[in-house]
Amino acid sequence: MSEYPISQIYPSDKRSLAQIDVLLQNEGITRDAHLDYICAMRDADDEIIATGSCFGPTLRCFAVSSEHRGEGLLNEIISHLMEVQQARGNLHLFLYTKVNSAKFFGSLGFYEIARVDGTLVFMENRKSGFPNYLNHLEKTKRAGVSAALVMNANPFTLGHQYLVETAARNCDILHLFVLSEDASLVPFAVRKKLVQAGVAHIPNVVLHDSGPYIISSATFPSYFLKDEAAVIDGHARLDLAVFTKIAKALNVTHRFVGEEPTSQVTGLYNKIMAEELPKAGIQCHIIPRKEADGKAISASTVRV
Fold it and tell me: Engineered SS bond to 256: which of 167, 191, 228, 296, CB 3.0-4.6 Å?
C-alpha cells in the first residue's frame, strides 16, 4: 500500500479535473462524458498522479503518471473503485481496456468477454458470467432457421412492430433482444412490457433481455477513440464480436436491423454490420422503416 491518499473528485473541482484530463491525454484517452464517480491519488505536492472512474457497473478512464509507474498505484485505484461499486450494490463489474492492458486486468480477476483486435477488450469480474448467459440462451434454441433482432424500443412503436413482423415472416424462430440497460427515457421494465404486448400475436418470436452484454451507447468506451467515426466503428465491431458468440449459441444465421434514413450513425453502423456479419456466416438484412404520412416512423419522433 502506497502512502498516497485516494479521494473522490467532484464535478465542481475544475483544477483537479484539468489535471486528470492531462493525465488521461498522456495515455491517449479523453475523459468520458458518462462518469458518475471519479477518484484520484495525490502526491505530497497535491498533484494528481493516478486516476480512475465508474459509470454504472463499469470501471473506466484509468491513468498513472509516468513518474510513478511500477509502484502498484493502478492496483490501488482499481481496489478503491471496486469498494465503491460494492457499496453501491454493484457486484458484477465490467471494464474496457486497451488490448495491451488486458493481461494486467486479468491478473486482477477480470475475464475477457470479447475484443476488437488492435483496439480494445471488454472484460468482466465473473469467470462464468458470459458463459452462463450463453448457456441460458442455448436452452431457448429451436430447430429451423434462426434469426435475431436487437432493439431499444424507446418506446415501442408501430415501426418496431412492423420490423418484428417482417423479420419473423422470414425465419422459423426470431430471437428478439431488448436492451436491458436503464439509460433511456422509457425504463426497461416499461419498454419490455410494451414489446411483449406488441409482439404477442407473432408465435415464432422468443423474447430475451440483452443483459449487460449487448452494448449500449452509454456503456461503450468512446474515450479510447479519436473521433465520432472511429467511435461508431469501434462500437459496431465490439458489439458484433459479442453478438457472433450469442449467435453461435442460438444457431442464428440471420440478423435483421431497421433502416434509419435520418441517422448517419445508424447508417454507418448498419454498413459495418452488412460487411462484417457474413464473415461469421450471418446474413444481415436491413429493413426499410415503415412509413406514415410519407415519413418513416421513428421512436425519436414519438418521444418528442
Answer: 167
What residue has cell string 458470459? 130
Count how many Cα atoms sit within 13 Å of the Cα of residue 129 in the half-sphere of its side chain.
Answer: 19
One-character DSSP codes across 197-248: HHHTT-TTEEEEE-TTTSPPTTTS-GGGSSSHHHHHHHHHHHHHHHHHHHHH
Per-residue pLDDT, 304: 42
Over the stretch 184-210, which tens digit does the pLDDT of each residue have?
688 999 999 999 999 999 999 999 999
Residue 102 near residue 91 (C-beta atoms within 8 A):
no
What per-residue confidence (pLDDT) applies to 303? 40
In whole angstroms, give the CA distance from residue 277 to residue 32: 29
Alpha helices in the chain (DSSP H): 14-25, 73-88, 102-107, 129-138, 158-169, 188-199, 228-250, 264-276, 299-303
CB atoms within 10 A of CB 145: 13
